[in-house]
Amino acid sequence: MNRRYRKTIIAGNWKMNKTATEAKKFADDFKALLPKTKWCDVVVCVPSVDISAAVRAFKDSRVAVGAQNLFYEDHGAYTGEVSAAMLCDLGVKYVIVGHSERRAMFGETDAIVNKKVHAALNAGLNPIICVGESLDQREMGVTMELIALQVKSALAGVAAENIRRCVIAYEPIWAIGTGKTATGEQAAEVCGFIRATIRAMYGARIARSVTIQYGGSMNPANAAELLGHEDIDGGLIGGASLDAGKFMDIVNAANQG
C-alpha cells in the first residue's frame, strides 16, 4: 500500500448471497466493530435486491455500498438488466465490472467490459474493474500479456481525468473461491505490472494514483502479508466478506499498513 498517493480500499463481493434482511443484520454487526480512528475506505458490493436495504443500513457509517454488475445502456427493452442511473438513484457509489464469473458464465467480452466501464463513469459511479488469468494461462506463461490486454481494453477511450475513479482488481481465476492464494510476490508482481501498463497509457502521475486491489481468497490470515506490498492497495474480498468479524479483520490489517 502507498497511502501517500492513493486510497486503500477493502471491498466485499457478496456474490449471490444474503437476503435484504440478512444484509441489514450484517450492517448492524459490522458497524458495531468499526474503529473510531482513521481507517481505509470500505465498500460492500451486494446483490441488486439488497441495495436499498444496504444503503439504508449503512447510511450513518463510512461504508459505501456497491453493486455487482450493471448494463451499458441507459434504458430500453433489456429485461432483467439494471442501468447505471438506476444504481446511482439508489445511492450506489461503486460497481464491479468484468468479474471472471461474469466473463465465464455470462459471456462478457473485453468489449462489453469497456462499455460498462464507460457507462459507470458517465453516471458518476466508480468501477472496480476485474482482470485475471486462469491456471492454464499462468502455466503457459501468458499472464502478463493477458493482463495487459484486459487492462488496455477496459480503459480504452477513458479520459485521463477519469482514471483516478477506476479501481483495478487483480483476481487470478485459479485463486477465486478455491482457497488457493497467490503468494505476496506473485500478486505484487502482477499488480506492479498493471500499474506499469497504466503508466505507459497515462503517465506516471496518474498511474501512481490508481488503487489496485488483490482478490482471490484474501482472508484474515494472509491479508497483512498481501497488503504489505507497495502496489497492492486493498482487496476485493469474496467469502470472508460474508462474515462481519472476518471482514473487519481484513479492514484492520489494512489499517495497520
Proportion of beta-strand residues: 15-25%
Q: What helical percentage do the residues reach?
A: 40-55%
Q: What characterizes the major β-sheet?
A: 8 strands, parallel, barrel
Query: How many individual helices?
Result: 12
How many DSSP E strands? 8
Quaternary: single chain
Q: What gross morphology would you assign?
A: globular
Report the end-to-end length measured between terminal Cα atoms.
7 Å
Mean pLDDT, all residues:
95
Can you write the helix and strand succession as a string? EHEHEHEHHEHHHEHHEHEH
**Rounded radius of gyration (Å):** 17 Å
Q: Largest sheet, order of strands side by side? A: 1-2-3-4-5-6-7-8
Q: From the helix content, strand content and strand pairing, which structural class follows?
A: alpha/beta
User: Low-confidence segments, ≥5 residues, pLDDT <50?
Assistant: none
Helix/strand layout:
Elements: E1 9-13, H1 20-31, E2 41-46, H2 51-57, E3 63-67, H3 84-90, E4 94-97, H4 100-106, H5 110-123, E5 126-131, H6 135-139, H7 143-154, H8 160-163, E6 167-170, H9 184-202, H10 204-207, E7 211-215, H11 223-227, E8 234-237, H12 244-255
Parallel strand pairs: 1-2, 1-8, 2-3, 3-4, 4-5, 5-6, 6-7, 7-8
Helix pairs in contact: 1-2, 1-12, 7-9
